[in-house]
Design goal:
The chain contains 12 helices and no strands. With 202 residues, the protein is an all-alpha fold. It has a single domain, classed as Leucine-rich Repeat Variant (Alpha Horseshoe), CATH 1.25.10. Helix 3 crosses helix 4, helix 9 runs antiparallel to helix 10 and helix 10 crosses helix 11.
């Protein structure tokens, strides 16, 4: 079993390779450490679980934990829940995401703008695997009122939204999505560089 000391001694660049050596009971242990107060311990546990999820499906059985964390009163735990959920959607043959997507999209209105950004960005891992959710995701993103967002975060959140809509658009498009993107590209919020970045994705 991996010890706390061993985990904390690992360099960040060693985590991807180390994640491939994890045993079943160590994954359970790492899930438990996600609730620890020590930031470094929590963060290293999260990173190991994320790296593990890239190649193996043995974090997926803890889906119920991801769902619980989505509803946590702690924004860090909400972030952990949504990120691990997105990382494990590729293993979700039972389509459990269908029952969790409403709670997930609720975080688009989180009090913490950084959590909102993490929520939108993580959709980039869900969209390629769950085409049945494209309409629901696109509609939820387009319903966000950017002017309600903190002024310093408006451009960043709009860019995050456009990145996901561009990704959905590769599978299917709609007048609403095209209209939203067009309005953003002709609006005042994005600078020239940002507009070119989005145009290159279309």
């Amino acid at each position: 079993m991996i010890s706390i000391e061993r985990l904390l001694a690992l360099e960040k660049e060693d985590l991807p390779e180390f994640s491939k050596t994890l045993q079943k009971e160590e994954i359970s242990q790492l899930m438990g450490w996600l609730a620890e107060k020590d930031d470094k311990l929590r963060y290293h546990a999260l990173l190991l679980l994320q790296y593990r999820s890239e190649h193996y499906d043995d974090v997926y059985p803890f889906w119920y934990v991801f769902c619980e964390k989505l509803k946590s009163s702690n924004s860090y735990h909400r972030s952990i829940g949504l990120m691990l959920m997105a990382d494990n959607v590729k293993w979700d043959r039972e389509n459990k995401i269908d029952g969790a997507i409403d709670d997930y999209l609720e975080i688009l209105y989180d009090e913490k703008p950084i959590t909102v950004r993490q929520c939108i960005q993580a959709l980039g891992k869900i969209v390629p695997y769950k085409t049945q959710l494209h309409d629901k995701i696109a509609n939820a993103l387009m319903a966000i009122n950017i002017m309600d967002v903190k002024p310093t975060m408006r451009k960043l959140i709009l860019l995050d939204i456009l990145n996901i809509l561009a990704l959905i658009r590769k599978h299917r498009t709609s007048e609403e999505i095209d209209g939203y993107i067009s309005k953003a590209l002709t609006g005042e919020l994005l600078d020239k560089k940002s507009k070119k970045q989005i145009e290159s994705m279309l």
